[in-house]
User: Fold these one by one.
Assistant:
Number 1:
Amino acid sequence: MRTPVIAGNWKMNMHKRQALELVQGLHYGLTWPGEVDVIVAPPFTALDTVVEFCAKSYISVAGQNMHWEESGAFTGEISPSFLKDAGADYILIGHSERRKYFGETNEIVNKKIKAAFQHNLIPIVCFGETLEERERGDFVRVIEQQILQGLTGLTHEEGSELIIAYEPVWAIGTGKTATPTQAEEAHAFIRAHLFQLFSPDVADAVRILYGGSVKPKNSRELLSQKNIDGALVGGAALKAEDFIGIIKSANA
Ligand code: PEP
C-alpha cells in the first residue's frame, strides 16, 4: 500500500510573510492529514521561514530546483547540500518550466537525481509531454525517453525511493486537466517502465503523482485511480483552503 503524497509547488510566489501565513493556514486548518505525506516547495528565500514553522508540523519541505554540483563557481545556483542545510528533505527535479525556460534536459535531470540521493534529498521527478507531442502521437516516445534517460544508472534502492510526477505540460496552469482515464493510462505506462528498468518491487513502491490543474473539485476522482498516488499542485497550493481540500480527498 503506497502512502499518498500531496505536494505544493509554489513556484515564484510567496514572500516570507505570505509563506508563513500559508503554512500556518495549512497547519491550523488541518491539524492532522491522516495517512498522507504533505510537502510544500517554497521559493528559496522563504525556505528558512517555512522550515522553522514546519518543524512542529506534519508538513515537509522541498526545494524547487538545485544544481548537481556540490559547490563552486556557479553564480546564482543552489547545491543539494545547501538545500539540506536549509532543512529541505525533498527536491523537485525536471519540472516542465525548468525544461522549457532553462534548457533542462533528461541528462541534467539524471545528474540532479543522483546528486539529490547523495545528499539524502528525495527527488520528485517530473515527466510529461507537450500538447504538440501528444497531438502528433509522440506521447509514448517522449515519456519513454524521459524515463530511460532521466533514471539511468540509479540503484534499485534509489529507484524505490523516487517520487515521480506525471505532468502533461498542456494541463499545467491552463485549467485543462487530463481526464482520470488519460492520467491513469500514463501512470500505468510509467509504472510498467519502472518494472522493466528496475524490478516489480520498485514499480510497486514508487509513488506516481498527477500534476496539471488539480483542484479540490477534481482531485477525488483523479486520486481514486489505481496508479495515481497523489498530486503535484501549482495554483491550488497557494490557498490553504484549496490545498487542504486536495489533501482531504487523498485520504477519502
Ligand atoms: C505545477 O506547476 O506543477 C502544476 C501542476 O501547476 P498547476 O496545478 O497550476 O497546473
Number 2:
Amino acid sequence: MRKLFTVLLVMAVVCGTLFASGSQEAAGAVVGNAAKPVIFFNRQPSDPTTGEIQMDVMEWNDKTYYVGFDAAGGGAVQGQLIVDYLASADPAVVDRNGDGVIGYVLCIGDVGHNDSKARTQGIREALGTWNGSTDPGQAVEGSANVGGTQMKVVELASMAMTGLDGSTWNANAATDAMLNWATSLGNQIDMVISNNDGMAMGCLQASNYPEGVPIFGYDANADAIEAIGAGRLTGTVSQNVDAQATATLQVIRNLLDGLTGNDVIAKGITEPDQYGNKISADMEYLPETKALLAANTGVNASNWTEYQAGARDAGIKQTDAETKRVILTIYNSADNFLSSSYVPALQYYAPLLNLDLTIVQGDGQNEASCLDRFTNLNSFDAYAINMVKTNSGWDYLDKLQY
Ligand code: BGC
C-alpha cells in the first residue's frame, strides 16, 4: 500500500516538478509541497521497538534528510567517561558501604528512542552489565577497574522515566525515582547514571540525594555544565548541539539554493558554502540512511569551561541569502535538551542563514499536539520535523502530498 502510494507520489512529484518548471517563467516558481525539502532532526524516523530506520520515510523525496548525531558512538563515549572515572577513583571512597560491589542506578529516558537505547547499551557494555537488551531491568552482573582493583558492578535499578502526563525523558519522574531509590537502596548506590542531563539534574533535585555520589548525564546543557563546574555533576557528553542545529538549517538552505548531490550535505558543513560559512565541528554523512551526524565528546571537570554557554560557532556569519520560510516542529516544549540547548541554537543561526522559522511545539505525548499545528503548509518553503513518536513520519508526510 505504502509502495503504491510512493509510486503515485513520485509520479505526482515528477509531474508537479515538470508543471512547475514549465510554468516557472510565466507564473514564477510553483513547487508542490511534496517536492519541498523535509529534514527530520533529533528523532530519527525509526521503529520504536527494533530501532530500525524507516527508509520509506527517508526516501519520501530527494530532498529528505536526517540530521542528528552519532548515537552509537555517543553511547560508547558516555560508557568510556564512566569507566575512566572509575579507573582513577579510590575504591574505598566510591564503594560507599564497602561491600566490594559498585552499585548504580540508571535513568533510561525513552525506551522507544534510538538515542536512549544507544546510551543504555554504551553504558552497560562499558560496565559489563549488557545482556543484549536495552529494556529496564535487563542487566547482568558486570565488573570494572576501580583505581586498579577489579570490582563487581551491579545495576541496582533502572527506569524509563515517563511523566504522569505520558511524556518521556521526564525530569520530575527522575526526581521521584531518585527519592525512592535513595530510600530503598541507601548506601548500596555508588553511582547514578542518566541518559540525559534533564533527568540527571532531576535526580540531583531529590531532597535525599546521597551527597558526593558521582552522577553522569548526557547533552551538555548549560545548567549541567555549570553543575560540573560546581562539583555537583561528575560528567556529561556533548552531542554538539550547535553543529546539529546549524546543519539542520544549512541542509535546508542548500536545498532551497538549488544545490544537488554531494553539495547538499557538504556545502557549509565540510567545506565553505557560497556565503563563506562552514560549521567548525566535524560532521559525518551516512548515505545509506541519508543521515548527517555530529560527533560526541565527553565533558568533565577537566574540560567543562570549553562547553560553557554562549560559545557559538564563529564559522557561521550573516549571509545575504534570499529569505525563505520554514516550519519546524519540536515534539515537547518541556524537553530540557531541546528547549534549553537546541531551540536557542536554531534561533541564533536561522537569522544568519536568512531562514524565517515558525516553530510549533508539542506536549511530548500526543502527536496531534504537533501535527494539528503543522498547517498552512503551502506558505512554507521547507519543513523541519521533530516527531513525538519516532515512527510518526508518515503522519507529517501525508499532509505534504497535496
Ligand atoms: C537528548 C535528550 C532529549 C531527546 C529528545 C536526545 O538526543 O539527548 O535529552 O530528551 O533527544 O528527542
